[in-house]
Amino acid sequence: MDFKIKISIKHFSEKGFKSLLLKSSKETEAPFTHYLHNHRNGISGVYKPGAIEHVKTLLEYKYAKREITDRIAEETLQKLLTTNDETVPFPVSKNSGFKFIDLFAGIGGFRLALQNLGGKCIFTSEWNKYSQRTYKTNFGEVPFGDITRPETKDYIPDGFDILCGGFPCQAFSIAGIRGGFEDTRGTLFFDVAEIIKRKQPKAIFLENVKGLRNHDKGKTLSTILHTLREDLGYFVPEPQIVNAKNFGVPQNRERIFIVGFHKDTGITDFEYPTPTNKKAVLADILEEQVVSSKYYLSTTYVKSLKAHKARHKNKGNGFGYQIIPHDGVANAVVCGGMGRERNLILDNRLTDFRPVTKISGQVNREGIRKMTPREWARLQGFPDHFVIPVSDAQAYKQFGNSVAVPAIQATAEKILEKLASV
Questions:
Q1: Where in the chain is the domain with CATH 3.40.50.150?
Q2: 3-state secondary structure of 304
Q3: I need a labelling partner for 24 at 20 to 30 A (CA). Which of 7, 63, 147, 221 fits?
Q4: Bridge partners of 261?
């Protein structure tokens, strides 16, 4: 190296990213962070070219008047490995017992659950840039983007144990009487099935909305199961609706879980986890300190919600806002829509009623407020040191779209028990 490189892993922090990586390729940031996390486990080769390219881009930006060769970039990359101190809230396990990949990762609910059980995530993908930011902040890794792109799939290493993913629910265009793999083309489940077919993981763990069971008159789930069982040869027990409130969080959140095992494991039976005895109520997850007036509804908004509910009640409908008692259980948090209005609470601790945002009317004096993003995080089982680096609007979307970590972890534990028995 003919000149001294003055650069360290701190330059890849959020501040460093803004100052140094402003012009770098987002396409190479994912393989760079994946390489840093996987250089000790024998699967880093697939990420190394992209990692070198990323470092080279950074060096060319920092040392614009110097010629940056591949050799200089690679030597710098190796230096960065020795200074990667894993200062993120949820660093990778150095003594992992199994490997998994995290598809449609969101903000890392699956990853958090499986890391808690000693797992090592070796590949992750999530297309939303705000979710990518939250994921990177907490795990130190940038997810790959669009999983439908062949070049993204090409980064997936071989040899992992479990494929995880909360794939979106989409209808299939049923053609003829095939009823399987080919019918899923054009949907994101097709990409999941394609990865399973290519990589042959020992186990799969998929999550979806409860409505998948009846989606398109049951055809969607039927095609998924046919694909997994008949086309891909996995043992897949009957999917189960799992409610988060039965696993220690005060949220009535029902989701369908689909578990499967490769035929080579010889596993032909599986029992989903039984509910825990830990009962939680809303009071368990509420903010300890007085929250900002921005979370309190305006008098105008409260008036409109009450009028809206009354109109529906007169029509015989039960639709409208809900105030959850402190000894109750929240409704499912969802992405946008009525997610917040169906989970209002009473909190009379506020004394400063001056609005901090532009509202119509005044801050209500009835103590009616929406939950904070941190309270939504707790409803989903995320620990308090999980960092929320995005706006409230984005945070509500992210936690509403996420999985309930305790329910995922309890099911993953059952999967690992079966794998350990063979």
A1: 98-277+403-420
A2: helix
A3: 147
A4: 203, 235
> What is the structure's pLDDT at 90?
93
In the prediction, which pLDDT does 168 show? 78
Residue 16: burial class (beta carbons within 10 Å; 0-12, 13-18, 19+): middle
pTM equals 0.89
Q: Which CATH architecture has domain 98-277+403-420?
A: 3-Layer(aba) Sandwich (3.40)
Buried residues in 292-302 as b, exposed as e (16+ CB within 10 A): ebebbbbbebb
The per-residue pLDDT for 22 is: 42
Contacts of residue 210, defined as CB under 8 A and 6 or more positions apart, other chains included, come to 241, 254, 255, 256
Quick one: DSSP state of residue 157? P
Q: How far apart are CA 163 and CA 234, in angstroms?
A: 13
pLDDT for the residue 260 = 98
In the block, residue with structure tokens 């499986």: 114
Residue 14, both tokens: 């959020």
Segments of the chain with pLDDT less than 50:
1, 13-24, 174-177
Q: How many Å apart are CA 186 and CA 178, to the nearest integer?
A: 16
Which string of b and e fits 346-381 if b means at least 16 CB within 10 Å?
A: ebeebeeeebeeebeeebbeeebbbbbbbbbbbbbb
* Confidence (pLDDT) at 79: 76
- One of 121, 164, 169, 335 is an active-site residue; which one? 169
335 is catalytic: no
Residue 7, pLDDT score? 57
Burial (Cβ within 10 Å: 0-12, 13-18, ≥19) of residue 413: middle
> Is the distance from CB of 363 to CB of 291 less than 8 angstroms?
no
Number of H helices, E strands in the chain: 13, 10
- Give the single-character DSSP code of 375: H
Q: What share of the chain is helix, strand, coil (3-state, %, to 5)?
A: 45, 10, 45
How many beta carbons lie within 10 A of that of residue 143, not counting itself? 29
